[in-house]
Amino acid sequence: MAFDLSEKQLKRTEEELGAKLPHEYREAMKIDNGGEASTEEDDWEFYPIKDTSDRKRLSRTCNHIIKETESCRGFGNFPENAITIAGNGLGDQMVFLKEGESFGGTVYLWLHETGEVQQVAGSFSEIEKL
């Protein structure tokens, strides 16, 4: 079952990140906080944005983008200015890169074994959610 996400919860996450998330990504997460996608590279599961509005939503979003980003930092080669938004289940991540006080809209692939960052899409709307 898809869950929506309130603007209040989005702003709370952005305050914790110290940066604004890309508009297209924000709007997609308001409709369906999480989900899946398929690209030429792989199949992806989007991490939700933490939702503390009730216990059910808190439980559903326990693997939120901030927690997953902190986990990726443990690899040692995760970009300092990145936030992970999706994983392929094998360690590689879709990320946004922070540009000043906001995250840019370009979606990148971070390869966990090498630390390499490659552009996947010019914007979040180019990635078709399933």
From TrEMBL:
Signal peptide: none
Protein name in the entry: SMI1/KNR4 family protein
Natural source organism: Microbulbifer halophilus
Location of the Knr4/Smi1-like domain: 5-126
Pfam families: SMI1_KNR4
